[in-house]
């Protein structure tokens, strides 16, 4: 899966903002943002993706493979599932490895509904597609 130059430039700018200020301006300012580190499912090459996340009541954080409501999940989701032992998050100046699990059933529905209730774009993503948007739980393992 290739990434257009414009999308790559956009992601790099968001990553730069997160690293420099710990936040992102503009439309993204409403979200808690992190940088997800994965390796390519096929290439094995390092990948970084900026994304919104949801804090849980415990130690886990949640990310959503919405892919803007497209009919396929985000590439980072496939990378994380292919190599879950090589996933890390960067939040502010803190970078650490995480354990990855895919939420299922009522738990997934509850977490996604919370995100969709807080941010209309997530509700719109689910309306735009027939697939059930995956939600991953990420828990710090060390670091």
Automatic annotation (TrEMBL):
Pfam families xref list: F420H2_quin_red (PF04075)
GO CC, any one term: plasma membrane
Q: Which InterPro entries match?
A: F420H2_quin_Rdtase (IPR004378), Split_barrel_FMN-bd (IPR012349)
GO MF annotation terms: coenzyme F420 binding; oxidoreductase activity
**Catalytic activities:** oxidized coenzyme F420-(gamma-L-Glu)(n) + a quinol + H(+) = reduced coenzyme F420-(gamma-L-Glu)(n) + a quinone
Q: Which family does it belong to?
A: Belongs to the F420H(2)-dependent quinone reductase family.
Q: Can you say what this protein is called?
A: Nitroreductase family deazaflavin-dependent oxidoreductase
Species source reads: Mycolicibacterium mucogenicum (Mycobacterium mucogenicum)
